[in-house]
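=== Structure Prediction Worksheet ===
Name of assembly: unnamed complex
Input type: mixed (protein and possibly other molecules)
Chain count: two
Listed entries:
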Amino acid sequence: MKTLVTWLFLTISYAAFSQQILNKKLNGSEKGKILSIYLREIERNSGNKFFFLDQWFESLQFEDGYAGMTLEEALKKILQGTDISYTTFYNYAVVFAKDPNRTLEKIKFLQSVKSEKIKVESKSLGSKDKVKTGTPVHLSGTVRDGKTLDPLQGASVYIEGTNRVATTSGTGTFSLEIPAGEHFVVFRYSNYEEKIVNLSIYESGEANAELMETPKILEEVVVTGRQSNVVNSNVGQIDLKMAQLKKLPVFLGEIDIIKQIQVLPGVTSVGEMSSGFNVRGGGVDQNLVLYDGVQIFNNSHVFGFFSAFNSEAVRNASFFKGGIPAEFGGRISSVLNISSKEGDYKKWSASGGIGPISSNISFNGPINKEKTSVFGSFRSSYSDWLVKTLQYKDINKSSVWFYDASLKLSHRFSENDKLTFSGYASQDKFGLPSDTTFWWQNRVASLHYDHRFNDRAFSTFTMGFGEYSYDVKDKNKNSAYDLKYGLSYPTMKGDFNYHMGKHRINTGINGIWYGITPGAIVPTSSQSNVKSQTINKEHSLESAVFLSDEFEVTENLRIDGGVRISSFTSMGPGKVYFYQPNQPISNATIIDSVSYAGGKTIKNYMGYEPRFSLIYKVTPFSSLKIGYNRIYQYIHLISNSVSITPIDIWQSSNYYFKPQIGDQYSAGYFRSNKSGKYDFSVEGFYKYIDNILDFKDGSSIVLNPTLENALLRGVGKAYGVEFSINKNSGRLQGSLNYTYARSWRKIQSPFDGESINSGNWYPSNYDQPNVVNFTWRYALSRRFSFTGNFTYRTGRPITLPYSYANINNIPIVNYSDRNEYRVPDYHRLDFALVIEGNHRRKKLIDGSWIISFYNVYARKNVYSVFYKTNDNGIQTPYKLSIIGTILPSISYRFKI
Amino acid sequence: MKYSRFIIFFLLLDSCVSPYDINSSQYHQSIVVEGMITDQPGPHVVKISKAVQIRDQVLKTEWVTGATVIIKDDIGNSETLVEKSSGNYYASTIQGMIGRSYSLVISTKSGESYESSRERLLPVGDFTDLRAEFQMNQETNYLDQVKSRNGFKIFLNSEVLPSQESRVWWRWTGTFEILTYPQFRTRPVPNRSGLTVLVPDPVPCSGFINRSGALVQASPCTCCICWVTQYNQIPEISDPRFINNGRIDNQYIGFIETNVRTFYDKYYLEVEQLSVSQAVYDFWKKVKIQKENSSNLFQTPPPKTSGNITALSADATPVIGYFSASSVVKHSIVLKREDVPYHLNPIDTLAISCTDAYKFSSTSKPTFW
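=== Predicted Assembly ===
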């Protein structure tokens, strides 16, 4: 017993002794000293022992920033990236070893990479004899798309086994300080094949990489050792993975970008027939959707059944829901920045898909090898059967048709100059049984000129033209008419990027000239009782200058600060009505009007929009992110129905409609495990919106020359917290998101009829407090995978009839307060089986099948509650489920 | 392709639309007021009732009785109305005059008070060319003779006076004659072998009696011929966009269904054109939106139809309805059975008293018939 106690005592005291040394604080005397010399000094002063060969540490010198650290921390930092590690030995000595584990690690990594059939290239820079291992050297280079040779922005360059990561700038360049030695350099970009270079680097030099887009529908099944980007990515930014998207269960065989956005944390939608999406309690019009830099106003086909973007034509899409960079503006809640695919500069290929609703085809290749390329795609529906199957009389007797097409031409003048033309068009037709036909279309075209001044500076200049319009035609003899609405928006943007040490500066200008034809109706038959009416065209100019700096303060702290100054001018010709003061505004209280001549300023607004985000890496695998942005929105969707319908009106700010101002604050904690296999995040937000618009009860918005009478102004607020867990590798991959969020509005006025719900806060149409999304993908084999998703969300608010009365022998229904009740909760499960073609690299056709089941347990989710008049003339509520059953579909996709 | 289409069709046969149940806890009580004063000789009536829960789809009316109802004008005249039948309060002397303003004051038995806004009585223009246009919406067949989607669309050309401030309200009353066979009523009776048989059970007012299984006429039928009144179910109001130089041409007024009952003989239609205040116009506009939106896929969220009457205390039962001061111009037309451009069968055999066949049905022949 006594021996044991003595032994324990000795052990503890030795441990404490050694521990003490590692805990010793560096006092600044180490500065400028070679590590070996400093350790020898400690040996002399403390009686501790360090075992090492002097030449190992000759190149390791203490620089600034070590003072105050413990020896343990200092050793960790100084040895990082070298192949030297240490261990305490017999509790009084520190033994350094020319790290055999690093070698083992490397072998392990190489084996894992080989098992995944990833090719590893070798490259050497400098000679081993001349430099000692561990000396810092400088590695730089450019990452490009292997086909289009475009520089890839945001690609990560990562030194395996260390936490050294660089992200490529807008010119695709990166630079890294690494210790001389042998390293595996991993180049990664989403939807592209990973590239690994076995680099022997003994002097500063360049390593360039060309990455190839993931060629197959399925990505490689198991990739280990990935570093998750959740920790490093910008605040509120999500890069959509097109390849992943293609593996999710699809609705009637159509891959859909918007549908993928709808399952992200913080994003909701009101149901199947909603083309928009709601981000963090914001309205569907508060999302800026850009297609090659030009806004798209209607992003859906068939009222939101499908998104208007053919996923085959999309190269990548970035989605921002917070911390929106200063280069974007004009919409409060989010930005979806879609870049279309560019043609291959080397060889021709084609791909396509055949589904039950529509088919698509795309082709691309060089017109002039290495110089000029083209990419074109076309998608069209070919049958009405979708609507015929829906059990609702207004829909199933109707007809529906749509198409979309895109074309991109790129010409490379030199390594540093490129000119691109991008065109996109989509059109929808929807015919109701009552001889009314709706047509709506988007058309955008843009010209981009990219110029690279040098490795650190580049700029892009964009000129674009966009148009959104709709047309409603009625052919009934007594009411025949043609109603047109149009919105055109020539756009210009110039930006300049400069990379200077730890700063990345982005500055530029942006201008949009809106021309809105709010409505023109003409009778189209002689008996028609429709009076011809045209509301004058409205013109306005939105312009902005922006400046932002992404500042890498330290290795662990990144700050992105910026400001956007926007200006909006509503211009003549136009007429402004004035109303009696202290009276509700209506046609009856108009007292005067002023007409403005063409080009005269009717009203001008200025917006100062600060943007800020901060990422602090607590450890290499966890980070804290804080974001704030203020955004002014000058164009508003005026809708008196719940989701976007084709006949909604976009109205720009004017004398009466002030810009909406949104302030959003967010903060989150992001963490991944060491291998990046799992990541977790929690993020909270608070958003306050000023000058929101809501419609007045029973107001009419179409062809209303005094729209200010029909709309009410108020404020909105939203807040919530989003949780997300992802498994990024292995046979089973998936993500689980949960969001709790609320979205409120308040419209208060001293006048009856101008307040909603007596001026109290009421839930917005898309206030869905609890939202769960679970998505998974299980690789059954290399060719087969089983994917699925489950969605749950609280039913959205509605207004219900609760009683009726006969007034003047007309049964009249009494409705509740606005959004007083809710539809039942929404939940749905989808499955898909993806069968790929064989994995041989050389084959004529690379085809794959997707068999999907939408709404597996056939829940009749209530899309809306609507009112039908019964035999007694009383409107009674009915619930409408758009998809009341399981919807199977099969589609085939190919690539030649 | 065809095969998959078939499968999906099969699966989708399941209905996507079903009634939505509102539980009674979601019900709110409210008072309903309908009142009007016109430039025509009275009597002017104010009706006060209670709203009915939406689940109770019977057309019963719960009247508010014993209330004090007063109509006042802007020069100090007022009249307290007399409740002649439950919830129906009549004025006897007060008469609407163009240019004068009127308001309504109500105090219920339980002490709750309500008041309308002040309504100025505006003049109204005349209307011409009241006409009917037949519209064939479906092929007729024997089964559809009682209910059909075919009928006459009614139009008129209206004159809108500048002093009407672009607001017009139209309402119509239609009258048709029906013949029923109350003597043929039967009732099920179990016979000796336990089977149910139908035995004659004539309605007493038919004049027939069942004498040991045989129908015998004992007196003349007093409930075989009735005149049924119909009212417009969707309010029609002017759309300022369609006013051209003080006129609205081809204004749609309503739809008169043609079937073997409505055109048993002829259809008498009386149309009124009324002036309205902004508040009452807004009330009808909301009702119209409510009516037209129903069964429309793009229906807008329903407007609350509160009207121009307000409660004087915050905790009073909410009120809906209107009090209107209006000028009225009336014209009528008669639609004949011969105007229906297809063959109508003889009236069907309805074995009930004609007064029970329709809600607004009476055995007294109208003066204009």
